[in-house]
Amino acid sequence: MPALLTGPASAADPIKVGVLSDLSGSLSDYSGPTCIIAAQMAAEDFGGTVLGRPIQIISADHQNKADVGAGIARQWFDVEGVGAIADLPNSSVALAVQHLAADRGKITLLCGPASGQLMNEGCSKTGFLWVLDTYSNTVGPARILMDQGKTTWFLIVADYAYGHQMRADLTRSVERAGGRVLGSAQHPTASPDFSSFLLQAQGSGAQVIGLLNAGSDTINCVKQANEFGITSHQKLFLPGAVISDIHALGLEQAKGLLLMTGFYWDRNDESRLWGQRFFQRSKRMPGQIQAGVYSSVLHYLRGIAKAGSDDGRVVAETMRAARVNDVFVSDGEIRPDGRLIHDFYTVEVKSPKESARPWDYYKLTGHIAGSNAMQPLSETRCPYLKS
């Protein structure tokens, strides 16, 4: 059933925001149902109405299938009057939906997907890439790890757009910094058995094994790496992992893992307060995807209010012109390619002895300014910017 939030009674048609996510599959903890809660919180915090019209949050499961996601988006845009779609984990789904939205002048608030294509070849004048991408989650961390003397890598790669782009970006980053990628292995999504890929990584002797996957694939990969004793000799770097993955693994299995994140609930007083509010509704702490959905939906609603219109093309221009200020980002800038510029943090997962309370999982080990984390705009492959 759709998730619903309404403001005061009104005869006007509601402003509809769709949360299109994986609600039952391998990415359902990565984003999924908790992103519906995040969008609801944004609508509530905005006040429940905009331009005198109630705000309605609806949701659906794209099942990690591009055709299913595109079909839902088409119905939402053409029949149900949805003005914006948020979340969209799975880059193949996101690329299909962004194409549809661009043709219709509708907004996409991309929080779950990470493919760099979304702000390059697949960019849109009404599309916004809010949280992570394959460039931001490889270039900075690769530099930090290389500075620590970890110069040889092996990559285990999910066989879809995100994994392919992540491999390309990470390989380029490592080689530019003077390191070497000794090999890679590609796996299908939702794979139950990673033993052959892990044994290749172990046999390579690489100092770092990059797990370029997400959701349950990442969790299963780490569990099996522990079973093979790999984590005692080689470091695992998880650019796509989120805090719910660490919770599912437990600190005994996850200790020492290296991650990149744009948000940590325990970073400051504001994030702790918002995290506790989120926990009261979801019974888990938010990760960067949930915080990103909250931030992007809130900024979209502010854009409607400032524009005095819900026309997607007008709202998109207003959103780009305004700074982003909320629990996710302070004074964030949105570039012409739709990329939100925000800081990132490299973290190492604590051991059970280092953790003082539930969900106290991360040690902050590095800070990467947003201006240094993102693909330079001078390197854009976005057609409307290049022309």
- State the share of residues found in helices, binned by percent: 25-40%
Q: What is the arithmetic mean of pLDDT?
A: 93
- Following the backbone from N to C, one meets helices and strands in this order, namely EHEEHEHEEHEHEHEHEHHEHHHEEEEHH
- Cα distance, first to last residue? 43 Å
Whole-number radius of gyration?
20 Å
Give the spatial strand order of the biggest sheet.
8-7-9-10-11-14-15
Strand composition percent: 15-25%
Poorly predicted ranges = 1-11
Structural class, by secondary structure, is alpha/beta
Largest beta-sheet details: 7 strands, mixed
Shape type: globular
Summed up, the helix count is 14
Please provide a written account of the structure.
By secondary structure, this protein is α/β, with parallel strands linked by helices. It is built from 14 helices and 15 strands. It has helices spanning 33-46, 66-78, 91-104, 139-147, 161-176, 195-204, 216-227, 243-249, 251-254, 269-282, 288-307, 312-321, 370-373, 383-386, and strands at 15-21, 49-50, 53-61, 82-87, 107-110, 127-129, 152-158, 180-187, 208-212, 235-238, 258-261, 333-334, 340-341, 344-349, 362-368. The strands form three sheets. The chain has a seven-stranded mixed sheet, sandwiched between helices. Strands 2-3-1-4-5-6 form a six-stranded mixed sheet, with helices on both faces. Helix 2 packs parallel to helix 3, helix 7 packs across helix 8 and helix 11 (288-307) crosses helix 12. The radius of gyration is 20 Å and the shape is globular.
